[in-house]
Amino acid sequence: MDEATQKSVLSDATVKEAMRVQVLSLSAASPINHGIRQLIKYKSNAFLVNGEGGAPVGVVSKTDIIGAYYAGLPIESPLGDIMVSPPMFCSPGDSLESALDTMRSQRIYRLYVRNEASNEVVGALAYPDIVGLLYGYCRSCDRSVMNRKKNRAEDPDEMRIRVKDVMTESVVWSHDDDNLSQIMEELSEHRCGAVLIRNRSRRPISVISKTDLILAYARGIQSEAPARNVLASSRVISCQDSTFLEDAIRKMILSDLQRLFAWSEIPENIVGVISLSDAARVRSGSCHACISSRIRVE
């Protein structure tokens, strides 16, 4: 592959191309339970917090709400008590690579997009948005596996990235009789979005995600309650570790999933987890023909 071909697909991409224009915001005086309702209603992971003058002064994420749950804060506590300040911004015309560099160096999951002329917040950018953009590039690429029928001779399966090439192999486990506080500690320690739950026979039976925990908080379930009390809605959604990464990305995007667990040989043998953030760590999620290798999630 010559030097001209080895150009990142993101080299000319801007934040405006990937950002989502829907921006959630609440007043700093609003209670935590209002924030939970917003996150669930709009299937979001965070929202801006506005001060008295309406200007953004902080961000509250699911992680922050779980921290309040773990600390035993009343759910009527104001969002200003748990927000992270200040918000981090970029501009619509910024290069996507520079935004990724900021997200990586600041160890944050999202940036808010502010119009420099009006100072108005016009969008938000998170890793799933970037994966969605790259997926679009992949669909239109001549060497994409989407076009493998017409390019079969030039696009062998050996070029295609599989889930096992990208997945996180250290799966965080808990038991169904562990209490929710222990689950929250595991999420915090391993900086992950969900914990796989197994019974005492070591069989995976469910998943507890951050969403499940904030819903438990909203329902008044005590943090010392066993994990089995919140398992009903979260089944283990998985794929084989040899699945092509593009197929896994398609499943996550179309099914509005943040992650898939990966199994080897039999579905009960969970060996890893693949998330949209993992997918953002490599190329476009299709094949080795695409070399946007500057994408990193640390």
TrEMBL record:
The keyword tRNA-binding appears for this protein: no
Cross-referenced Gene3D superfamilies: CBS-domain
Pfam annotation, one family: CBS
Key word Amino-acid biosynthesis present: no
Superkingdom to which the source organism belongs: Bacteria
UniProt KW keywords: CBS domain
Protein name: CBS domain-containing protein
Organism whose genome encodes this protein: Desulfomonile tiedjei
